[in-house]
Amino acid sequence: MRIDLHSHSDVSDGTRPPAEVVRLASKAGLDVLALTDHDTAGGWAEARAALPDGLTLVPGMELSCKHSAGFGNPEPDSLHLLGYLFDPDEPELASEVARVRDDRVLRAQRMVELLQELSVPVTWERVRELAQGESVGRPHIARAMLEAGAIETMDEAFTPEWIGPGGRAHVDRYALDPVRAVQLIRGAGGVSVIAHPRATKRGYVFSDEVIEELAAAGLTGVEVDHPDHTPPDRAALRALASRLDLVPTGSSDDHGALTGDRLGCETTAPEAYQELVSRA
């Protein structure tokens, strides 16, 4: 079995509709795919309706969290938590996810305003068109900046010059405490996995101590095999997962054209997948 447990559609910051994502997953030879859009389950129905024969869809979500121990920095930093097989209508979880999603819109609107003040010709209308779905994020703003000729590559947007942390047009946002997020997912019947905890180039770097804290709160797994993880980091995370009885997963974190349509480039072992399902 070939299993990819982290992917995005245009319901959040991917570039392809959920129906196309599952078709491409099947074409890539996958047997199991998790659709994990940011802070929304809005793509599940379309993906299920278009699901090709032989492909199993794992309903998921990538929840936006903040943890004060990220990056070796005392300030709260972004931590992403993958949730699987939970009830999206569980009232407490649904309320928090809606709050996160609503704040994404307010934040993006303010970032556009700040960019306009910096003479960058982006509009909220265009950012909303690029987002398409209900979850608006910085990648949509970056794409609008690229279209407008303000930057030459997407990466340039995520710097202090523009919308990177501490940047001239950066705006903070509401996000869940990750311990609470783990508990909310458990309360909704699901399992949780910390996403790309050693993605140094993207700024998602969390220590063993942070993962231990989340494991004590009920974290189920850790994303080990990820395109942004080095071989030494993968070995260290795999050893940590074994020590903490966490499930080691692997995934592409595909965002469509933004990441080169890489579904299936990293996968989860069948026994790890079965363990995740058994713990849900």
TrEMBL record:
The record, for Pfam families, names: PHP
Which ranges carry the Polymerase/histidinol phosphatase N-terminal domain?
Answer: 3-67
UniProt cross-references to InterPro entries, sorted A to Z: PHP_dom (IPR004013), PHP_domain (IPR052018), Pol/His_phosphatase_N (IPR003141), Pol/histidinol_Pase-like (IPR016195)
Q: Which GO terms describe its molecular function?
A: 5'-3' DNA exonuclease activity; 5'-3' RNA exonuclease activity
Q: Could you identify this protein by its name?
A: PHP domain-containing protein
